[in-house]
């Protein structure tokens, strides 16, 4: 049976199952509206380590171990570990992976990494290349700020369009058999660059890529917003979400009340995160916690999630480059 549908979408003939998930977050995230949906909330952002970078690595490794424990699996039961993060050369994922002795594929999709990983894991399982795959990713406010912007110790004032990088790690086990929601479709995004250069307004930069993937998914699958109980983007937050609604409407799709964003859900208005949340962990921990809980409700049958990523780096900023962006979509269903 042909698995490809349209130009960019894959329909899995034997939809893989998400058999376990794990989410670990920092104290700010734990104090937010979704605090009760996370498996673990850290007491502080150092987590007993000497640096934020080591704390991030520790979170990611712990999230991977947690999905193994929840599924009653051992590392040797897993054929592939797909993981990534925001730091140069994906060091959080690389150093966490050395603890498990699982064949490892490092990923970089910026904040879209979790959804990129879920799509690839589903391809591996549905294609017969694996029976069990773990997908994981992480980010940390302290590590991302001093890599992409300024050391937090400088107290640099952030514009209201800026987003707050989520401190956390999320992981999911995707398997051929088991109990849980199924991954039925994946739409792989294209790199979209609108010529925007403001690294403090990634929501505006990513909105067009999110809508490009959204529209392509609808066209490929012959579906529309009405076919989903929930449509959620990765981390466009307030600025990008408003723009995404307008861009979708211009192409004939009214997203209505079905649409929300991980960057909007994870923090409360009074937590001083400006535009909302971002970072690899943003969509990862919201998916591992909140979305899995939503899919456990009988009235929620089908969710379309689009992970969004701004594919910039400190090097590209110094070169005066604009910000290329990506959006990858997966469909999560109760079957």
Could you walk me through the main structural features you see in this protein, from its secondary elements to its overall organization?
- By secondary structure, this protein is α/β, with parallel strands linked by helices.
- The chain contains 10 helices and 15 strands.
- The protein folds into 2 domains: 172 residues, Peroxisomal Thiolase, Chain A, domain 1, CATH 3.40.47.40; 152 residues, 3-Layer(aba) Sandwich (Peroxisomal Thiolase, Chain A, domain 1), CATH 3.40.47.40.
- The strands form 3 sheets. The chain has a 7-stranded mixed sheet with strand order 1-2-10-15-14-11-12, with helices on both faces.
- Helix 7 links the parallel strand 11 and strand 12.
- The longest helix has 20 residues.
Radius of gyration: 18 Å
Q: How many DSSP E strands? A: 15
**Briefly, what CATH class of the largest domain?**
Alpha Beta
- In N-to-C order, the SSE pattern is EEEHEHEHEHEHEEEHEHEHEHEHE
**Total number of distinct structural domains:** 2
> For the residues shown, what is the average pLDDT?
93
What is the terminal-to-terminal distance? 20 Å
Which descriptor suits the 3D outline? Answer: globular
**With helices defined by DSSP (H or I, 4 residues minimum), what is the helix count?**
10
The name CATH uses for the topology of the largest domain is Peroxisomal Thiolase, Chain A, domain 1
State the CATH architecture of the largest domain: 3-Layer(aba) Sandwich
Largest pleated sheet: 7 strands, mixed
Proportion of beta-strand residues: 15-25%
Q: What is the helix content?
A: 25-40%
Strand order, sheet with most strands = 1-2-10-15-14-11-12
Structural class: alpha/beta
- Low-pLDDT residue spans: none
Look at the structure and name the CATH superfamily of the largest domain.
Answer: Stage V sporulation protein AD
């Amino acid at each position: 049976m042909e698995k490809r549908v349209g130009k960019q979408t894959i329909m899995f003939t034997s939809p893989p199952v998400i058999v376990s998930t794990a989410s670990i977050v920092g104290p700010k995230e734990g104090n937010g509206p979704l605090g009760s949906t996370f498996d673990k909330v850290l007491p502080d952002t150092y987590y007993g380590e000497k640096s934020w970078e080591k704390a991030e690595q520790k979170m990611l490794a712990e999230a991977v171990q947690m999905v193994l424990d929840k599924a009653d699996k051992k590392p040797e039961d897993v054929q592939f570990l797909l993981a990534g993060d925001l730091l140069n050369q994906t060091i959080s994922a690389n150093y966490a992976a050395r603890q498990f002795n699982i064949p490892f594929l490092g990923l970089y999709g910026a904040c879209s990494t979790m959804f990129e990983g879920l799509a690839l894991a589903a391809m591996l399982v549905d294609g017969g290349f694996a029976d069990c795959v773990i997908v994981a990713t992480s980010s940390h406010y302290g590590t991302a700020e001093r890599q992409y912007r300024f050391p937090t110790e400088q107290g640099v004032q952030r514009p209201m369009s800026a987003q707050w990088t989520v401190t956390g790690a999320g992981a999911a086990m995707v398997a051929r058999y088991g109990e849980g929601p199924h991954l039925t479709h994946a739409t792989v995004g294209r790199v979209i660059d609108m010529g925007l250069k403001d690294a403090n307004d990634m929501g505006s930069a990513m909105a067009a890529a999110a809508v490009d993937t959204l529209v392509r998914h609808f066209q490929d699958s012959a579906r529309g917003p009405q076919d989903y109980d929930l449509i959620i983007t990765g981390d466009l937050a307030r600025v990008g979400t408003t723009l995404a609604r307008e861009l979708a409407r211009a192409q004939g799709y009214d997203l209505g009340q079905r649409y929300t964003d991980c960057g909007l859900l994870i923090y409360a208005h009074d937590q001083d995160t400006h535009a909302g949340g971002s970072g690899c962990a943003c969509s990862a921990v919201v998916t591992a916690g909140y979305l899995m809980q939503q899919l456990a409700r009988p009235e929620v049958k089908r969710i379309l999630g689009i992970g969004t990523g701004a594919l910039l780096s400190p090097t590209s900023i110094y070169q005066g480059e604009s910000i290329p962006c990506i959006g990858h979509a997966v469909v999560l269903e109760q079957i």
